[in-house]
Amino acid sequence: MNSITRRQALNLGVSVAASPLIAHGREVAGGALSYANQGIRGFVIGRVRNRDITYFDALANTGAKVGRIFFSFTKCRDCDRYGRAFEDIDSLKRILDLARVRGIRLVVVGDFPGTNRVEFWGNAALRESFVENWQLFSRTFGNDSVIAGLDLLNEPNPPWPSGKLEDAQGLWRDLAGQAIDVIRGEQISLPIIFEGVAGGSSMGLRNFAPMRDSNVVYSIHHYTPHDITHQHVNAAWTRTIPYPAGPEWELGKWDVELGVAAWTRQRMELDLRDVISFQRQHKVPIYVGEFSCVRWAPNRSRERYIADCLAIFRKFGWSWTYHEFRGWPGWDAEIDSEDRTVTKRSIDAPVMKMLLAELVGPPSVFK
């Protein structure tokens, strides 16, 4: 399908101008949506090459305001530079136009291969290329009003050289700060999405001081515990565990402070204590970029897990994007069956109805 032009969008009566966003309690350029008070609620929508207008029609019909989409920065096998494939640039331009026509804003996530390996963090040329590519990306896309934010890196996970969390935080703070500087140097005022270390977990924001740029939104991903959310996704998660789960499942033993306990909504909230503390101390908006649970978690466990996630997000005023809309069938909210061979979708699937109710409801009161 050919790209939809700005003129075509205007002819369809869709506004392409953007009102201010709110960051740290003040208005900044970038759009009418606010990350505070659950102002952003939507879905992860995957990668840039595989979405069409039919997909965006369905996404818009959910009431979602935002989609979270990945842009791949390419890298050859034996080189130490990243780049941007022409096909991906053209695909993102097309996707932005499709989203514009349907009134959807997009959080664009940087997907840099190899950043989860120690070698990346020890390679100055690769890190410099990471920064340079965000600068070049910003020159192409940074002033597009459809973009609701630039997520610098999906689930950053630098090494802990001395076994201390602050080592990883320092590595990522330095690199992210350089990327923010070059983006701002291009006169781009879009919100920057900053995921903490340890794969974007709540722990990554433990005792973390905010970046000096005041238009940064802090983001986590929530799949804890993987023993429940990822059960039977791969060979690492072989047990069949219900939610809530009793202490006999020995969940939480990785947490040296809290230890093993029953996994309930109360324990889930305790697991998120670092991001809750960070939010309260620094008065910043929080965005849950991904959360989900596989649909074959036993006895409707997925419904209970997602319901508790949404209740917590509502309580603390966190924005969110559910992982994901019409992507891998294991996460698909429109597929209700616990039978992994079933792929039939329905808008009346219980988890989807739950998400729809949140999407059309009023924002929460930020606490």
Give the amount of beta strand, in percent.
Answer: 15-25%
Largest sheet: 8 strands, parallel, barrel
User: At the third CATH level, what is the topology name?
Assistant: TIM Barrel
Note the run of SSEs as H and E: HEEEHEEEHEHHEHEHEHHHEHEH
| Structure annotation, total helices | 12
What's the domain count? 1
Helix amount, in percent? 25-40%
Task: Write down how many β-strands occur, each being a DSSP E stretch of 2 or more residues.
Answer: 12
Low-confidence runs = 1-31
Distance between the termini: 45 Å
In CATH terms, the superfamily is Glycosidases
**Going across the major beta sheet, what is the strand order?**
3-4-7-8-9-10-11-12
Shape: globular
Q: How would you concisely characterize the structure shown here?
A:
Helices cover 34% and strands 16% of the residues. The protein has helices spanning 6-11, 53-61, 86-101, 118-121, 124-141, 165-185, 197-200, 226-229, 265-271, 273-282, 301-316, 350-360; strands at residues 21-23, 26-28, 41-47, 66-72, 74-75, 82-83, 105-111, 147-151, 192-195, 216-222, 286-291, 319-322.
Write up this protein.
Helix 5 runs parallel beside helix 6. The protein is globular, with a radius of gyration of 20 Å. It is built from twelve helices and twelve strands. It has a single domain (33-360), classed as Glycosidases (TIM Barrel, Alpha-Beta Barrel). The strands form three sheets. The chain has an eight-stranded parallel beta barrel with strand order 3-4-7-8-9-10-11-12. By secondary structure, the protein is an alpha/beta fold. Mean pLDDT is 89; it is low at 1-31. The protein has helices at residues 6-11, 53-61, 86-101, 118-121, 124-141, 165-185, 197-200, 226-229, 265-271, 273-282, 301-316, 350-360, and strands at residues 21-23, 26-28, 41-47, 66-72, 74-75, 82-83, 105-111, 147-151, 192-195, 216-222, 286-291, 319-322.
